Amino acid sequence: MNNFSSTDEFNLWKESIPFKISNLKIRLKGIVNFEKPLIEVIGELSNWILENYQDIESMKSDSEVFDELICYIGELYREKIDGKWSIELDESDVYYGRAIVCNTPPYSCPSSIITTFIHRKKPNFIIESINKQMKRFGKV
Amino acid sequence: MQQANKANKAVDSYAAKHNLTEKIGWKKETSIKNTTSATSRRLDIANSEINEAVEHKTGKQYLSKDILSEAERDAKIMENTDWEIRWHFDDYASKPLLSKLDELGIQYTIGN
Fold first, then answer.
1. Preceding amide of A18 cis, omega within 30
2. What is the DSSP letter of A90?
3. Within 10 A of A44 (CB to CB), how many other CB atoms are there?
4. Fewer CB atoms inside 10 A, N or C side of chain A?
5. CB contact under 8 A, A92 and B29
6. What is the ipTM, given to two decimal places?
7. Are A68 and A27 in contact (CB under 8 A)?
8. Domain locations in chain A as residue ranges
């Protein structure tokens, strides 16, 4: 899980988001067609994740891919809710030290969305989650 | 203080019994920001890797104003996020309280 020990470390990571998303697209060339409508892209990406990662541990151990997925999913949320990337600095918070996407005051944690998806194995989980956030922020 | 300690022990005992360990991502007494305000909802036991939490209640529980408020906040969090929050009563929960949880879509268990 991408835990950050400081805001500087998080900011450095944030700058690498576009690069990591490009990497993911290259990695999944021929598997996920990122030119398709979003709902189809998420469907293909979800299938690929479930086929390749049986559990949370296998996802976490493939840290490079996990990081790229966090960037891609987080950017989707950010665009859909007009949100921004941030880091949770409240030690008592469930997402302490993790990258979150927020639109004040609520937030979403992309790494949690990915691991929860793998745990629940519901094929439509990610798209339903995005739709829920869009509805919550009046973007539907 | 004594009551808080007792509740704490009960949470520990529940977590141990159900293998809700830190090793697999469970943490005690964390909080999640409310989805409709800048306040936070404290979670007795939560796992942010699978977005699941347990609200643990010790002793006899009734549908008081405070309990209703907690239940309504949990229902709102579940409605607006991917979190699943279930309640556990280690002793007794009144029928009106259980009916309210049913109405709000909150799953619960009773007993040790």
1. no
2. -
3. 15
4. C
5. yes
6. 0.89
7. yes
8. 7-130
**Residues in CB range of A103: below 8 A, 6 or more apart:** A81, A82, A83, A84, A137
The residue among B33, B44, B45 with the most chain A CBs within 10 A of its CB, best to mutate, is B33
CATH number of B2-110: 3.40.1350.60
> Are B33 and A107 inside 8 Å of each other by CB?
yes
Q: How far apart (Å, rounded) are the C-alpha atoms in residues A24 and A64?
A: 9
With residues binned 3-state (H G I as helix, E B as strand, rest as coil), the percentages for chain A, rounded to 5, are 60, 10, 30
The minimal CB distance from B30 to the residues A1, A92, A115 is found for: A92
What ranges do the domains of chain B cover? 2-110
What does the pLDDT profile of chain A (140 residues) look like in tens digits?
568 988 999 999 999 999 999 999 999 999 999 999 999 999 999 999 999 999 999 999 999 999 999 999 999 999 988 899 999 888 999 999 999 998 876 788 999 999 999 999 999 999 999 988 888 877 77
CB proximity A124 to B under 8 Å: no
* Residue of chain A minimizing CA distance to B37: A105
